[in-house]
Amino acid sequence: MLHAERLLSSSAKAVVLITLIACAGSVTGCRMLDSKRGPRGNSQVAAPGQDAQQVSANSTNAPRGSRAEVPATGPIPERLASLNQTLPTDQVVPGTDSLQRGSVLLDQGLTAEAAKAFELAIAENPLLTPAYMRLGEIRYKEGNLEAAEQSFGQAAALEPTNFDAQYKHAMVLHEMGKFDAAIRTYLKALALRPDDFRANSNLAAAYLQSNEPREALPYAQRAIELNPNDAASRTNLGAVYSALGQFENAITEYQQASELTDLQPKLLLNLAEAYRKVNRHEEMVSTLEQVIRVEPSAAAFERLGTGHFRLGQFDESLANFEKAVGLDADYFPALNGIGVCLLRRYIADQDDLDSRDAAVKALRRSLQVERNQPRVVQLLSQYQ
After folding, report:
1. In angstroms, rounded to a whole number, what is the distance separating the alpha carbons of residues 244 and 193?
2. What is the largest CA-CA distance in the chain?
3. Residues 17/171, Cβ–Cβ less than 8 Å
4. pLDDT of residue 3
5. Can you give the pLDDT at residue 370?
6. Is 264 within 8 Å of 279 (Cβ atoms)?
7. CATH number, span 279-384
8. For residue 383, what pLDDT is reported?
9. What is the mean pLDDT of each run of 10 residues along the chain (384 residues)?
10. Cα distances (Å, whole numbers) of residue 379 to 36, 109, 330, 344, 383
11. CB-based contacts of 26: which residues, under 8 Å, 6+ apart?
């Protein structure tokens, strides 16, 4: 599904980073001439961010620039108290004053000044974990993922048993597209807190983005056990089931997700694709009509054209493929759909050379956009 809003809260509220693998474009329309149809791409995973229902319309690798809200570090005074306990009562942990000053500045909205104070605290005491955490949050909010990763990574190295440090480090690695490293770090976080909903859900998403749906499944299921009313996690579990070819299970999860949130067009695209996989074409068409009423897109019209084609409604099919191309002239699956519909007309009436020529034109245009389409090449060799 990665383009969630760039959110960061300094409160202690916990949120879930749900990375969505996007819903890829549908298969080439030329396959509709066959009784079989190949895979249409990957199901979506909810994208990172506090608004966990947002999903992207991409291919396998999710976008890198999404933002998730990072939960604030635990109360600073408590952290400092634990550090102070290791020193004589008449001494204070080095860097404490700068850390406290930075926290006050941050509460006042003076982010740049706060960052300087946290940097000074680190210079005064390179072992001051809370300073790395607060600085990491600032850098994350600025969109500087590399600097945020360094700060959270240092905090995690200083305190390997600090769940917040491990979890936030994993989140940033996840958003940077470093899925293997993110998976390892989520596992460290879960070793500290096995029943954390956020970490289970995010780990499932990271495994799915690494094309490891079997590894993703138990964590996606555990996330639902921990929070059965979270639409984004149900969307992710649906995507995992789709990747495993368990489309009826995927349909169940997508349906439940749709009942838990406002209408999400990209979620419904996933649901429609799962319907297609199990030949429930009437439900596929009905779902896509809902999508188009809310958010018309080339992908939605193309898939609606596919649904009508499977139902033998060829005029409606052609009309929707043409609408898809009207929205995106380079949307090659819809160009293939046009070609297939017109070739069908020509096959039924071989005096209809106009349909044959228009079909060849559409298929040639499709190959100009995407060359790796051997079935289209084969069709052209037969009919041009």
Report:
1. 28
2. 100
3. yes
4. 31
5. 96
6. no
7. 1.25.40.10
8. 87
9. 33 32 36 38 44 32 36 34 43 86 93 95 94 96 96 97 97 97 98 97 97 97 97 96 98 96 92 97 97 96 97 97 97 97 95 95 96 94 88
10. 16, 63, 19, 12, 6
11. 40, 41, 273, 299, 302, 303, 306, 333
Tokens of residue 42, six digits = 């990957």
pLDDT score recorded for residue 129: 95
**Measured distance CA(183)–CA(185) in Å, rounded:** 5
Whole-structure pTM value: 0.74
- CA 118, 119, 121: angle at the middle one, nearest 5? 60
The residues spanned by each domain of the chain are 279-384
Its sign, for the CA torsion 289, 291, 297, 298, is negative
How many whole angstroms separate alpha carbon 73 and alpha carbon 138?
12
Phi, psi (rounded to 5 degrees) for 278: -110, 20
Rounded (10°) angle between helices 197-209 and 163-175: 30
Quote the CA–CA distance of 178 and 210 in Å, as a whole number: 10
CB atoms within 10 A of CB 186: 29
Q: 46 - beta bridge partners?
A: 55
The answer to whether 215 touches 187, Cβ cutoff 8 Å, is no
Start-to-end Cα distance in the chain:
37
